């Protein structure tokens, strides 16, 4: 079962008398066999709910600050034409009743709540996005996370981990940015990829004939899903865990990084595709910041003196979190310089920041 939620808002230049406004609307509600209940608002305008036999539920509120709002809820299989007629009748009547007092009218598409296929995801800075998702093509709960691959008509298949949009088949801009935006020469180089289970980075870099790429991904089920349902991103690179110039290790990267540090092993490029910078700006309350600091420190230690470290940041709107990350770059045990690049990643629907760092 799913519910459609429609909204209709009227912004007014001055407050209106609720009694005269509401009385002009009642005939429309009665025609739809909606039963009215008036609620006490303790002097904060007028509030009434209307309930229909078919499960329709309407909230009408005349706010004392110059705003009239209508919320309509109904079942997904309700008659959309009838609902449109009801909303249009309310809108047209309110235009007449509020003539000369309206500064803005806003009617949004219905929000579909409780649907089998979830189409709504928040951006990193808290805005709601509705995707054109029509089906779930893969879903598994691993030891580490919930993994979904959803199909979007516009973006292709989208990898979603624990409710966060990670990468869509349309997002080659992400892969380009986190590998240096086409400015690097990987031929004959040693490369370490942390994460990257969608296979996009690996598939791109193998084309450049590096000496060896070591990719460390903790979750086999991410690879299993992506090699079947994200092939526009990874091609056939995930079909085998080893190739002529790459190896995929299924393990936690932290112990491996510590081992590499002890052995003195270094890489020409380290690409951190594990996680975005945390939204929280309170490191003492969010353990992800400590994990990020550890990965940063270990990654720079295994970086060749002339090497480069690439990672994603987060939304360009999260300036506090980005500034905090940059402060942490300045406090690493190995001093580094860095630069950042802002890129539009199609399925993210927001500008995304990427970082390049190197040893001083």
Structure description:
- One of its GO terms (biological process) is spermine biosynthetic process.
- It comes from Pundamilia nyererei.
- It catalyses: S-adenosyl 3-(methylsulfanyl)propylamine + spermidine = spermine + S-methyl-5'-thioadenosine + H(+).
- The protein is an alpha+beta fold.
- It has two domains: 3-113, Sirohaem synthase, central domain (Double Stranded RNA Binding Domain); 171-359, Rossmann fold.
- It is 26% helix and 40% strand.
- The protein is built from ten helices and 20 strands.
- It has helices spanning 18-23, 26-31, 80-97, 172-178, 200-206, 220-229, 231-234, 253-263, 287-301, 319-329, and strands at 3-12, 34-39, 46-52, 57-63, 67-75, 102-113, 120-122, 128-130, 133-141, 146-152, 156-161, 164-168, 190-195, 212-217, 242-243, 246-250, 267-273, 303-315, 336-345, 350-359.
- An eight-stranded mixed sheet has the order 15-16-14-13-17-18-20-19, with helices on both faces.
- Helix 8 runs parallel beside helix 9.
- The protein is elongated, with a radius of gyration of 27 Å.
- The relative contact order is 0.10.
What topology emerges from the helices and strands here?
Blueprint (H helix, E strand, L loop, with lengths): L2 E10 L5 H6 L2 H6 L2 E6 L6 E7 L4 E7 L3 E9 L4 H18 L4 E12 L6 E3 L5 E3 L2 E9 L4 E7 L3 E6 L2 E5 L3 H7 L11 E6 L4 H7 L5 E6 L2 H10 L1 H4 L7 E2 L2 E5 L2 H11 L3 E7 L13 H15 L1 E13 L3 H11 L6 E10 L4 E10 L1
Parallel strand pairs: 13-14, 13-17, 14-16, 17-18
Antiparallel strand pairs: 1-5, 1-6, 2-3, 3-4, 4-5, 7-8, 9-10, 10-11, 11-12, 15-16, 18-20, 19-20
Enzyme class: transferase
Subunit structure: Homodimer. Dimerization is mediated through the N-terminal domain and seems to be required for activity as deletion of the N-terminal domain causes complete loss of activity.
InterPro entries: PABS (IPR030374), PABS_CS (IPR030373), SAM-dependent_MTases_sf (IPR029063), Spermidine_synt_N (IPR035246), Spermidine_synt_N_sf (IPR037163), Spermine_synthase_animal (IPR015576), SpmSyn_N (IPR040900)
């Amino acid at each position: 079962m799913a519910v459609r939620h429609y909204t209709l808002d009227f912004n007014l230049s001055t407050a209106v008398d609720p009694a005269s406004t509401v009385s002009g609307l009642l005939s429309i509600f009665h025609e739809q066999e909606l039963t009215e209940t008036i609620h006490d608002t303790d002097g904060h305008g007028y509030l009434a709910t209307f309930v229909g036999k078919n499960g329709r539920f309407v909230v009408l509120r005349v706010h004392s600050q110059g705003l009239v709002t209508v919320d309509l809820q109904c079942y997904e299989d309700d008659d959309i034409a009838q609902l449109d007629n009801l909303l249009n009748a309310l809108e047209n009547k309110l235009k007449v009743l509020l003539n000369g007092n309206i500064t803005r009218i806003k009617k949004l598409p219905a929000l579909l709540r409780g649907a089998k296929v979830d189409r709504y995801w928040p951006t990193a800075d808290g805005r709601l996005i509705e995707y054109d998702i029509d089906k779930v093509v893969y879903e598994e709960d691993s030891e580490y996370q919930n993994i979904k691959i959803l199909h979007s008509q516009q973006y292709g298949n989208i990898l979603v981990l624990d409710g966060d949009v990670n990468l869509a088949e349309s997002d080659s801009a992400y892969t380009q940015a986190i590998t240096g935006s086409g400015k690097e020469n990987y031929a004959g180089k040693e490369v370490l990829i942390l994460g990257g289970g969608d296979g996009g980075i690996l598939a791109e870099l193998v084309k450049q004939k590096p000496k060896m790429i070591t990719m460390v991904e903790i979750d086999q089920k991410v690879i299993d899903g992506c090699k079947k349902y994200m092939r526009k991103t990874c091609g056939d690179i995930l079909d085998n865990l080893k190739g002529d110039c790459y190896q995929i290790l299924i393990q936690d990267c932290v112990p491996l990084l510590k081992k590499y540090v002890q052995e003195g092993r270094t890489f020409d490029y380290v690409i951190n595709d594990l996680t975005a910078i945390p939204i929280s700006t309170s490191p003492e309350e969010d353990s992800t910041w400590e994990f990020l600091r550890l990965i940063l420190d270990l990654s720079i230690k295994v970086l060749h003196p002339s090497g480069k470290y690439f990672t994603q940041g987060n939304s360009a709107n999260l300036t506090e979190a980005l500034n905090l990350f940059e402060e942490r770059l300045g406090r690493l045990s190995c001093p580094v310089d860095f630069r950042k690049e802002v890129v539009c990643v199609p399925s993210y629907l927001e500008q995304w920041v990427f970082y390049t760092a190197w040893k001083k």
